[in-house]
Amino acid sequence: MNFYQTLWIFVVVFFVLAEYNFQHVEGSSCASRNSSCGDCVGLKGNCYWCKNKKMCGKFIKSDGKNQANCKGSDMYYKQCYVSGNLLIIIIPCVVGGLLIIIGCCIYCCCCRKCCSKKKGLFDKEDKKLKKERNERKQVQDHRKAERQARNEEIRMKYGLKPASGDSRYQRLDQP
C-alpha cells in the first residue's frame, strides 16, 4: 500500500470512531428517556429501566450507587424482557450447561472415536502377532519332524527301533 491509501484508511477509521464516541456521549443522558423501557434501553449508552419507579438511569458497572435505588428484580438492562436478577442467574446457568454439553459432545465424538481407532490398531497388531506366532509354530513343527526323522534313522542304524508303536526305549538284554 502506498502512503495515500494508508492515510485514507486512517482518516476513515478516525472519523468513524469519533462519530461513535460523539453518539455515545450524546446518548448518555438516560434520565431524559423516562417514557418507556424500550426507549430507555434502546439508547447506545448503558441505561437501565427501573420498573417500580418508571425511571431511566445510567448503568455504571463498577459503581452500584445508581442502581441502589432500584431493586434487581425491577431493573431491566439492555432489554425489557428479563429482569436484572434473573439475568444474573439465567445467563451463567445457560452458559455453564452449554459448556458441559459441548464438552460431552467433544468427548463422545473425538475421544471415543480415538479409542475405537486404537482398538482397531490393537486388533491389527494382534492379527500380526498371531500370524507371526503361527509362522514360528510351523517352523518349529518342521524342525521337530526333521529331528524325529533323524532320531529314527539313528535308532534304525543301531537297532534301537521301538517295539510296535511304543515310543519308549526298551532295555537291551546283555548276554
UniProtKB/TrEMBL annotation:
Recorded superkingdom: Eukaryota
Signal sequence region: 1-18
InterPro entries per the UniProt record, alphabetical: PTTG1IP (IPR052304)
GO BP annotation list: protein import into nucleus
UniProt keyword list: Membrane, Signal, Transmembrane, Transmembrane helix
Ranges that cross the membrane: 86-110
GO cellular component, as recorded: cytoplasm; nucleus
Compositionally biased region (Basic and acidic residues): 132-156
Stretches the record annotates as Disordered: 132-175
PANTHER family: PITUITARY TUMOR-TRANSFORMING GENE PROTEIN-BINDING FACTOR, PROTEIN CBG20567
UniProt-recorded name of the protein: Uncharacterized protein
Protein species of origin: Paramuricea clavata (Red gorgonian)
Phylogenetic classification of the source organism: Eukaryota, Metazoa, Cnidaria, Anthozoa, Octocorallia
